[in-house]
Specification:
The protein is 36% helix and 19% strand. The protein contains 32 helices and 36 strands. The strands form 8 sheets. It has a 6-stranded antiparallel β-barrel. It has a 6-stranded antiparallel beta barrel with strand order 10-11-12-15-14-13. Strands 25, 28, 29, 31, 34 and 36 form a 6-stranded mixed sheet that branches. Helix 7 packs parallel to helix 10, helix 15 packs antiparallel against helix 16 and helix 23 packs antiparallel against helix 24. The radius of gyration is 33 Å and the shape is globular. It starts with a helix and ends with a helix.
Amino acid sequence: MSGRLSCLSLCLLATTLSGCVKQPTPVAPTPVVSQVAKPAPAEMAIAASNPAADVEKNADSEMITERTDKPAIPAEPKAIAKSPKEMLKLAGKGVVIVTVYDALGEKVGFGSGCILDKGSILTNFHVVSAAASAKVQPRGTKNELLGAPIDVIGYRVLDERNDLAILAVDGLPDHLHTFKLAPPDQIEQYDRVFAIGHPNGLKFSTSTGIVSGILKTSDMPEQTVGLLKNPEGEWIQTDAVIAGGSSGGPLLNEEGDIVGINTLRFGPRTGLAVAVRHVSDLLSNLSESSSPLPVPNANVLATREVAEIKRGFDLELNQFVRDVERARIAEDSIQVEELLRKNDPAPECVVRCLEIVRKHRGERQAEDAIRLCVLVLATSTGETSSGREYVDELFDEAALDPKLIPPSMRVIYSLQPMQYSDSVAHYLRSVLKSDIKSEVKATAGVVLVSIMAVSGNPGLEAETMELAKSVRDESGMEHFQGSSVIEILNPIIDGRNFEVGSLAAEIEGKDADGKEFKLSEYRGNVVVLDFWADWCPHCRNMYPHERELVERLKDKPFVLLGINGDEPARAERAIAAGNVTWRSWLDGPTGPIGALYQLSAWPTIYVLDKEGRIRFKDVRGEELEAAVDSLLEDSDVPFLSANDIVATNAEWKYRPATASDNLANWQQAEFDDSAWVTGPAPFGYHEERTKLEQREPGQRPLTTVFRRTFDSPTGKLPAALLMKLRYHDGIAVTLNGTEVYRDRLTATAGIDSPALSRAAVHEATGVTITVDSSLLKPTGNCIAVELHQFSAYSAHPLFELTLGSAPDLVATMATATEAQKAEVVHLLRQAIGLPGAAEILEKLQTDESPDLQVRAAVAAAMNGFPVKLETITDEESLRSLVKELFDLNQLAWDDVSRDDLGRTQYARGLQKGRAGYTLLPLADPQFKKWVDGLVNIYGVALYRNGQYEKAQEILKESVAAKGDNPVDFAYLSMVLQRLGKTDEAAAQREQTVKLLNSDIWKHDAKGHKVKMEVNRVFSN
């Protein structure tokens, strides 16, 4: 539930041309259009030029008739711009600078705008969303670049969903140009276009390019879709040069008509413009009147009196923070406590806001004062009250003014999690009983249920449940923060959450054949729930691996079930084509199953155990296979022998977050851990685990340390050890003082060091590794673990470890079935260097089915053993090998191409990269066109691991083989630089730049991606 509530917090706007920061926000199902009156004529923008035939008005009939007493005059050809200079001359006087100001008259941002008529300016919604006031400045006369600034009266229409706004102005000079809209159906890919705006403050900059694509929101990359609020939106992709400050400026065809409004920038030559189709729709809702800025519901202070209070608070807060930091550096705890108690400026600011509310009840100043409280109360660090003691008083005042209800509820929501307050609850209940608008009552209900649900008071549980049902039934279709009340409250009512450890909610619906089925029918199986959509390229990329997983485990208690997010026809085509071979519920783009599971992206993966509990989330590829295999308890090849040394649910000692004991020698068996806490793994903050000491977000320890002492099994020590780990985010493991695993940590990271990055999957990273058994002693062993979080706000720490002797694989293989052999191969791909692996894999590459031969070859390559696939000649098996190459390439790249992963992660990438490099000749030359570009991963992995001589050899071979991949040349240049071969390095760098400027990599999306990667290599 907490995960759901947190995603309802107010979001900032996405990264745009004006320099604002935009983050993904929930998408409302209908456009946000404010101040809509009856449709007004929009001829100023969309009417075609009048025919040249002369017409006159018949005064008697009031009709327009053509004159026939003189010949028609031919229409003048429309002006066409062939260069940016000609376009600026043709249309430059229709573009304005839009500058926005706060309530103190200080500039807070700028963008561009287009003149539609002498009283209307078209721009982006985000340009004016933070404006207390605004001015526009048009192009001047011949002798002046800029005309005089003109005040914006207000806005005529807003469309936040499509990021558009039309502003009202008065007094635009007559010499200015007014724009027309191009017909939407006449815009085609590769058409020439021009952009006019003010990139980075450069006045009336004009550039040219082409329409790179006409896209729907659903066509966008996954990371881009989250920035766009209209899921059915249409966008013009262009390479016309645009930058911060171009937002709201026109994208024009050669005739100077608007084809789009420049809105987002994703790189030096990649921008998106809102398609003209949405501008036409906006004009149909144009209001003849205007409303003053700021825009409705924006957290903008519009009154000078309150803005002055905020400016003073900001100055005092900055000084307060500096004083406290200096005292902490001086280790003067008494002064720190005194400063926190006396100098925190927040309480005084809240009191001043209370005075404003009382003095200006019913006026905008009171609303602004409440808004300021939202900002001030949110600055609390947990060390001081930050004015929270005045919250009850604040809402006593808000209850007297209906205008204060929406902003006051934002104050309550900003305080989550907060101590339940009777007066705040009373205030919200009074709102629910009032005659105020239904959407406001819905907000009050959601906020009240939310603070009651997180209060931790068992006495409120029954009332919370009853209230949640009442609010849902009465206001279920209303929206709060972009999500419907039903979506928000159903998880609370049903006691559901979708974190690891919770029971998966029941799913009911129809499959592609129209047959009803339920999730509960598959209880007793390990279940993969896959939310997929055929329009999603990431989902399509997963199809082959998922089909393979289903086939491999067809004789196991395992099932993969899909929840499809397409329109039925597309889903049925994907199934009929054999791309999807698993049973799926057809839920549609906005169906009830997606709403139930709070779906926010495709694909989303849940892995359920046999009891129906969620055990993994958002795992793919090998991680998905490992997750499923770990839950198949009746596996034919046990992960460990029956004689585990450290069992999965073993008791561990862990250091409490509040402990202050000395950690010297804590990784040795003789360390005194009697004051530490004891519990069984797995550990974390959620149910179904030993809960670590719960602390508020921001106050949680960066590192928790665990240790366990044990004696070795009696008799002969095992030939090899296997260790299985699940963790989040970074980890270091030692056995008797020798480090055996480290990930997402620097080599010298201390106890209080944060992890270098978050876990690659939502809940945990799972690995299986081989450990040197000679590290064991007959008695007095100690295994010690440091679990590092990325930040003190992490909500998902997790640690689980199993250590045991490796199974006798050679003996197992003597009587193994085909399925059992596949299990052995899978294990050998995870754990490198197990006894008997070379013998087993050599035999499997020659004596088994082609499919198993290919798998064994991959495992052999990952272990560094010879690859022998001479018998593989059929095209199907070679295609399977190519698929393995692509998978290894992607996995290796994930492990070696990032700068924030630990050395162990790079070593894993090295294994995969080496395997891909070893297997490459087997697929070449038959599939050379498919596998070009894979060889460089091994060179990168070697470079990342500091093996520069070997990296030089591999990368030189790669360059010689292909000779056209700038990334290869860039890494080779860096390797040569590390080896001290500066002249050769410079030559390779020069070759890299030459390739980047060639026609091959000049324009398309792939070339842009390659350029970004090269820049990243050289920047390191």
